[in-house]
Predict the structure.
Amino acid sequence: MENKNGEVLNMQRVQNSCKANSGLPDSGSLKPTAVSSSSLESPEYDPHQHRNRPHPTTNTETLIHLLKGSLGTGILAMPNAFCNSGLVTGTVATVIIGILCTYCLHILVKAQYELCKRLKVPILNYPQSMKVALEQGPPSLRKFAHSSPIIVDAFLIVYQLGICCVYIVFVATNIKQVADQYCEPIDVKLHMLILLIPLTVINYIRNLKLLAPFSSVANIITFVGLGMILAYVFDDLPSITEREMFGSVRNFSLYFGTTLFALEAVGVIIALENNMKTPQNFRGTFGVLNVGMLVIVVLYILVGFFGYIKYGPDASGSITLNLPMDAVMAQSIKVMFAVAIFITYALQAYVPVEIIWTTYLDHRIKKNKLFWEYIVRTLVTLTTFILAIAVPRLGLFISLFGALCLSALGIAFPAIIEICVLWPHNFGPFKVALIKDIGLIIFGCIGLIVGTYVSLGDIIASFQTPVEDQA
């Protein structure tokens, strides 16, 4: 039976882990030899019962955040994704990728829970989980344990900053299309500049609890806007025979990157699970994750399938850019989505700010912490603004960051963590789990390499044509 002092020490360990780059104390205190093999099933410590979050979110609030985190620019890019894959390939592959993403999130959250039970700590974030797992995994992987938190943090930061860049390009491009109908056209980069101060201000919101009402508003706007978009899509819909059923192998990598970007919000999802009031309701057959991902996959297929039938090879990086420029209803849709994505910017920026501030800076700064935190939030906004100005190619931006970061974060890394957690004797009959995880790692690596290569090549080629043609 663990005494009260022992529990306090474990709580202090986690609090300190949030302030240290390594994520946990020296690895010597976490050697697998110090962990009983029976601790995996031990009922004596339930991490969920020991969490003490300052602003926990309810199941409904978490589901709202999950939907808002995934129903952003990604769903609007699905007609462009189906253009690269074809109707049949896109439909089947979206279901498969949706199941794959959901499954990988399940094994990641489950592995984190098991590691928390072993260490008797209430919570571990993604980088901490990778470090501890590698320390307890195969000997050949343990040498990477010390550097693994930095690698995971780097992928998370780059991906989330990439999302924020896409959001800035999206909002500015849609506002420009509307504004150009009523006043003298100006460059899209000037629209981005106008957005800079409002984006900085909304990024000053410091916790997910306060963001929940904004996400609720953004969700309402998104669902209403999707309904209005589908009204345009189903109006005078062309015959399905006019569209490709199967795309080329090369273009499938662009589809893969776009769809993975759209479906996989691993950084936000892990942050949401860690911040729940009842995290035990996150998993399970009818848990928050499965319900949210089911709704998301169905909507993605609906918009992608019929959006491609409607606009064919002309499908833009966002379906809103295919809507008529001079129609009031179309202009309303663009403004609505611009507002919704603007609100969601704060949710996506929450992850890199949390990583940079909590993990790397908070414990080093002794005075004026709040002031310096706001400086960090301002710098994050400025960084995404500069990147958006530099590469304002919406569709290719989406594909690049999906392939580059999410192949690793959403597929390969969870499989590596599960291998380490199950090591060496818990892989089941014929080591099915090991074989499955190795397959996920290979698949993730192939997606990362091929998708990134093709996307970078297309981005370089796209600079030979006007930006508007690449939206």
Summary: The chain has a mean pLDDT of 82. The CA atoms of residues 8 and 450 lie 48 Å apart. The chain has one domain: 54-461. The chain is about 70% helix and 0% strand.
